DNA sequence: ACTTAGAAAGGACATATGTCCCTTCTTTTT
DNA sequence: AAAAAGAAGGGACATATGTCCTTTCTAAGT
C-alpha cells in the first residue's frame, strides 16, 4: 500500500462519487488516498479495525475463511463500496478479508478515532452510513435466503446472469468475474460441482464454453433456471 | 392488533429497555403501544412499510417465503428487537414477514413520516439505528457464512446449543424454540432431515429425546460437532 | 516442434439431503 | 375405553454435492 499525497485526485474521486457533501471539512482534512497492488490485502479478517475505507477505483473481492480453512467469497466489487463500516459502528473485529483483484486499487481512508470525533454528531454522515449498511444488510439478507433455499444450479444461473449484466467495457474485464474456482467459493460449493453444472448448462444449450470462456446462449432459459433471482453486484 | 392507550405502560417499556434517550420528545409524542395476538402478523413480506416497531414484550418469529412457497425462518426473537429499520432507511418493501408466536406481543409503533421529520437530524436516534442495523448485518453475515459452509449436523448442533443458552424461566418456554418443523425451516433443510440428524445425535449420546422433548446429554460433544459456532439469538 | 509444469476438466464413488409415503404415537371425540 | 383425526417419526429411494484422483488441456521453456 502506498499513500498518494494528491489532494486534487482525492477530491476528484469524492466528487466523482458524489461524496463531497457526505464528509464534512473536518473529516476530509484527515482523509488519505491509498493505492493497493493487485493481490494486496486492504484488511484482514480477525484483526481489529481502525479505518473506514471508501473504495473509489479498481476491483476488490471480499471473503471470509473458516477455522478449518474453507473460503467463502462474499462479493466481487467495483466502486463505490465502503469497507469497515459495520466494524466502525459495532466495534467488533474485522468480519472479512478484503483483497485487491486489479492493479491500482484506490481507497480513501478515514481514521475511526477522527470519524468518531467529527462524524458521530453529523447527521449527513450518519445517514450515509445508515444507507450503506442497510443496503448491505438487504443484499446479505436476500443472498442468504436464496443460498439456503435453492440448489447450486439455480445459484449458478443467477450468478451468470448477474455477471452478464455488468457494464464492463472490454471482453477481458468480464473474464475477471468468471474464474470458476472463485465462482465456486462465491456460490458456496466445490469447484468440481460448478464444473458439473456448467457442463449440464452447456448440454442444455443455455451456455457455451470454449477455452474457459463462457457465453450465454439462452438468456431466457437461464432466467427460468434462476427463478428470476439475480445476485446484486 | 389493538392499540393500548396507556402512556404509563409505554414509557415503562421504554425505560425498561433504556430507550428513553433514544427517542426524543417529538418522536415519543406519536409513539403508539400495540398488542398482537398469537399467530397475528405484525407485518407482511412484500407490502410497503410504514412503521418502525420496537418489540418490547412477547415472542415473535421472522421469516421469508419464496415464490414457490418455501419458508425460511430467519429468527425467533424476544425483546429487544427492531422491526422495519432496514425498510425505513432504504425505502424498499418489506423483506420479511413478522408474526407473533406468543400471546400479548407488544410493540411500540412509530410512523415513518414522523420519524423522518423529527428523527433524521437527531444523531442519537441515527446512532441507535446504526447500531441496530450493523448488529443485524453482523449476525446475518456470520449466519450466512456458517450456513453455506457447514452441513446440517453442524448447524443443528449449533442451534441446539443456542437454544439451551437461552435464559428461559419455565420448561415449557424452552419448548417453543424446539418445534422441529420450525427448526428445519430455520436451518434451511427439510423436516425429514432434521429428524434424521436428531436420531443420529441420540445414537451418539449427544442428546436424548422423549415425547418430543430434547435434552442435551453431552454439551462438550455438541460443541465439537458445532465447531464452536453458536447462532446468536 | 517437443517436453514439461501447471491449470482445468472429468470419472468414480461416498456422503448429504430431498421427496414421497407409510407407520406410529398423541390427542380429541364419542 | 374405543375410534378417529392429526401430529410426529421413519423407510426407501432419488437427487445433490463433496472428495479424491486421473485425464486432458494450455502455456512456458528449450
Automatic annotation (TrEMBL), chains A, B:
Extent of the signal sequence: none
GO molecular function: DNA binding
Native organism: Niallia taxi
Domain Cyclic nucleotide-binding, chain residue ranges per copy: 10-117
Protein name according to UniProt: Cyclic nucleotide-binding domain-containing protein
Membrane-traversing stretches: none
GO terms (BP aspect): regulation of DNA-templated transcription
PROSITE patterns recorded: CNMP_BINDING_3, HTH_CRP_2
Amino acid at each position: 500500500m502506498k499513500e498518494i499525497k494528491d489532494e486534487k485526485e482525492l477530491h476528484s474521486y469524492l466528487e466523482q462519487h458524489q461524496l463531497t457533501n457526505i464528509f464534512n471539512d473536518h473529516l476530509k482534512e484527515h482523509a488519505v488516498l491509498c493505492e493497493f497492488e493487485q493481490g494486496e490485502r486492504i484488511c484482514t479478517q480477525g484483526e481489529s479495525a481502525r479505518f473506514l475505507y471508501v473504495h473509489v477505483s479498481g476491483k476488490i473481492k471480499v471473503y471470509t475463511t473458516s477455522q478449518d480453512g474453507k473460503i467463502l467469497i462474499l462479493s466481487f466489487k467495483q466502486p463505490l463500496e465502503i469497507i469497515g463500516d459495520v466494524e466502525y459502528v459495532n466495534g467488533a473485529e474485522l468480519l472479512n478479508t478484503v483483497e485487491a483483484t486489479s492493479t491500482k486499487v484506490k481507497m480513501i481512508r478515514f481514521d475511526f478515532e477522527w470519524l468518531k470525533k467529527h462524524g458521530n454528531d453529523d447527521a449527513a454522515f450518519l445517514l450515509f452510513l445508515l444507507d450503506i449498511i442497510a443496503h448491505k444488510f438487504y443484499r446479505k439478507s436476500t443472498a442468504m435466503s436464496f443460498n439456503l433455499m435453492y440448489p447450486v444450479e439455480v445459484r449458478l444461473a443467477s450468478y451468470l446472469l448477474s455477471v452478464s449484466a455488468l457494464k464492463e467495457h472490454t471482453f477481458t474485464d468480464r473474464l475477471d468475474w468468471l474464474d470458476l474456482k472463485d465462482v465456486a467459493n462465491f456460490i458456496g460449493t466445490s469447484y468440481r460441482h460448478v464444473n458439473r453444472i456448467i457442463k449440464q448448462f452447456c448440454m442444455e444449450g443455455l451456455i457455451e464454453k470454449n477455452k474457459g470462456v463462457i457465453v450465454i446462449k439462452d438468456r431466457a432459459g437461464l432466467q427460468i433456471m434462476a427463478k428470476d433471482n439475480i445476485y446484486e453486484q
